[in-house]
Design a protein that fits this description.
Blueprint: H1 2-8, H2 11-19, H3 26-36, H4 43-54, H5 59-69, H6 76-85, H7 88-96, H8 105-111, H9 115-124, H10 129-142, H11 145-153, H12 162-169, H13 173-180
Length: 189
C-alpha cells in the first residue's frame, strides 16, 4: 500500500492525471471551454465552432489529439466544416480516416473559394454529380473564378444555365462572362 501511495505522489503522474481530467488535455479543454455553454441552432454550426476554436494553434495536431481523447466522435460534418474553413490538412487527415463524405464538403469549400480543398476533394474522394453542380453554382455566385474554372474543366456533365444565373445574381460579371463563353444550349432550345 505504501508503494502505491508513493507512486501516486510522483509529480509527473499527478500532472498527467490532472491534465487529463474531463477526458481532455488541458490545452484542448481550454480551447473548447467556451463552446460548452453555447447553444447552436444546427449541429453544423457547433462543428464549425469546434474547428475554429482549435484553429488558435495547429488545427491538425489538435484534431489528432482530440481523437486520442474522444475516439469515434468525428463525423462527415467535421470534414464539411474543415472544407468550408479551408483547413486542407484536416480535410486530408479526416478523409484518410475513412470518414464518409457528405454531399456538402465540395460545395462548402467552393463557396469560400478554397481551391486547394476543392481540387483535393474532386481528385481524391468520391463525389457525386450533384455535389459538383452545387459547388459550381455556389462558386459562381460567390465570384470565385479560379474555383469555377477548375470545376468547369473537370465536370462530367454539360454546363447548365444555373451557374451563369448564379454568377449574374451575385454580380460576378467576370465569372458570368467566363461561363457564357462556354455554354452550349441543348439542341432544340
Amino acid at each position: 500500500m505504501a508503494a502505491a501511495f508513493t507512486a501516486l505522489q510522483q509529480a509527473p503522474l499527478v500532472r498527467a492525471i490532472a491534465e487529463f481530467q474531463d477526458g481532455l488535455f488541458v490545452d484542448l479543454a481550454t480551447f473548447l471551454a467556451p463552446l460548452r455553454n453555447q447553444t447552436y441552432e444546427q449541429e453544423d454550426h457547433m462543428v464549425e465552432a469546434f474547428l475554429q476554436a482549435l484553429h488558435a494553434g495547429d488545427t491538425l495536431e489538435y484534431v489528432q489529439r482530440y481523437l486520442v481523447c474522444r475516439p469515434g466522435t468525428l463525423t462527415s460534418r467535421h470534414i464539411d466544416a474543415a472544407a468550408q474553413l479551408g483547413y486542407m490538412q484536416v480535410v486530408k487527415f479526416l478523409c484518410a480516416l475513412g470518414l464518409p463524405l457528405s454531399l456538402y464538403a465540395l460545395p462548402k469549400a467552393a463557396i469560400r473559394g478554397h481551391l486547394d480543398v476543392v481540387e483535393f476533394l474532386h481528385h481524391h474522394v468520391d463525389r457525386t454529380p450533384d455535389s459538383v453542380h452545387i459547388a459550381l453554382n455556389h462558386a459562381a455566385h460567390a465570384g470565385h473564378l479560379a474555383v469555377v474554372q477548375f470545376l468547369y474543366e473537370h465536370r462530367v456533365e454539360e454546363l447548365t444555365v444555373v451557374p451563369i444565373v448564379s454568377a449574374a445574381n451575385g454580380g460576378r460579371a467576370d465569372v458570368e462572362q467566363y461561363l457564357r463563353a462556354r455554354f452550349r444550349p441543348p439542341p432544340g432550345l
